[in-house]
Amino acid sequence: MHGKFLDLLCCPETGELLKLNSGETLPGGDIISGTLVSLSGRQYPIVRGVPRFIDREEYVSSFGYEWNRWARLQFDSENDGKPMAGHSTRMWEAITKAGDDRVQGKTIVEFGCGSGRFLDVVRRKGGVAVGVDMSLAVESARNNFVDDPDVLIVQADILNPPFRSGTFDGGYAIGVLHHTPDPSTGLHSLARTVKPGGWVACVVYSRQGFYGYSSVARFRTLLNWVKPLLGYYPALIYAYFSAYFIAPLFARGKRLGIVNPFLKYLEENWVVSLDYLPDLRWRVLDTFDAITPRIASTHTSDEVQEWMRSAGCIDVRAADWGDTSVVGVRT
Description:
The chain is an alpha/beta fold. The chain folds into 2 domains: about 180 residues, 3-Layer(aba) Sandwich (Rossmann fold); about 80 residues, no CATH class. The strands form 2 sheets. Strands 7-6-5-8-9-11-10 form a 7-stranded mixed sheet, sandwiched between helices. It has a 4-stranded antiparallel sheet with strand order 1-2-3-4. Helix 1 packs parallel to helix 4 and helix 7 packs across helix 9. The protein starts with 17 loop residues before the first strand and ends with a strand.
């Protein structure tokens, strides 16, 4: 982390400001190691350039594994000339509805940053990017932006983030809050860190879509049950098998039309298949992403809009990515 970010941080337990106590700082101002200390004596280490406000992944370990395995797969720079070219930028723009004038020169926070593909969008639009994640995905995010002094990566609980109130010009959570025990609290925490007049955006899993299928829930339950014994190997095997064999088979069957109702039944109840994704690599990743989390709730647009209003946002409205993307303005 660069030293200029110290003023953004606070103790998540007390809200007290933090000071740097010893450590290694490079000539350009990048702090590689050290300890952040609150006025009341609470201490938080900086390890490999990342401030650490938690010491375990809790319920999000699958994302630490996932984003260290596929650290740059979804970055737009890795997809030029490929089937998913520009997808991350289009997705970010549709969800946040934030024009370039609301990003360039601004400080923007992402709750649940993973390896940083949307932080990359913010940086390419000229914003200063702050990403927080509870999982060890922060390792890959740090590596992806290690030479960029305008990116801060923090490991912390997004339900209790270590940021001062009213710090950021805008903030977003894309596909993250439904992986917490309390998505509403997560959105409240995000909105609290945004300045009055700043924008807030989020999208969660829809109750009406793929992530609400019984098949996805069944796979998730089974794979989490066997994980203590077999790790993520069964999930990886299924993700590759589904991407390379099941999805193409389902896609061909749907084109025939007559078998489509049967395939739809299988998808909704017994088989996880992402045949609509044109890139095999993304298909593997997104299948793994769907079937491994310990927590993955589904919601409605009305529910998310109510979270936004109760978090102190106005001008709350639906965005343009699925039926559960919502934006608002912090009061």
